[in-house]
Write a structure and sequence with these properties.
The chain has about 60 residues and is an all-alpha fold. It is built from two helices and no strands. It starts with a helix and ends with a helix.
């Protein structure tokens, strides 16, 4: 029962984000999108390395 409640809450949260994003969101400029893409790439790479290190140590 708890799993169904959690899944329902996640579904409602995603639905709310989609509705609000379509209503109030503005498209990004290509330069801004490129900047965020570079930052995101380094953050994801760093998190993967940290997860590997954490898995080896602990």
């Amino acid at each position: 029962m708890t799993l169904i409640i959690i899944l329902g809450a996640v579904f409602l949260g995603v639905m709310l984000m989609v509705i609000l994003g379509e209503k109030y969101g503005t498209p990004m400029e290509p330069e801004q999108q490129e900047k965020y893409s570079k930052i995101t790439r380094f953050l994801v790479f760093g998190l993967i390395i940290l997860a590997i290190i954490k898995g080896l140590v602990g």
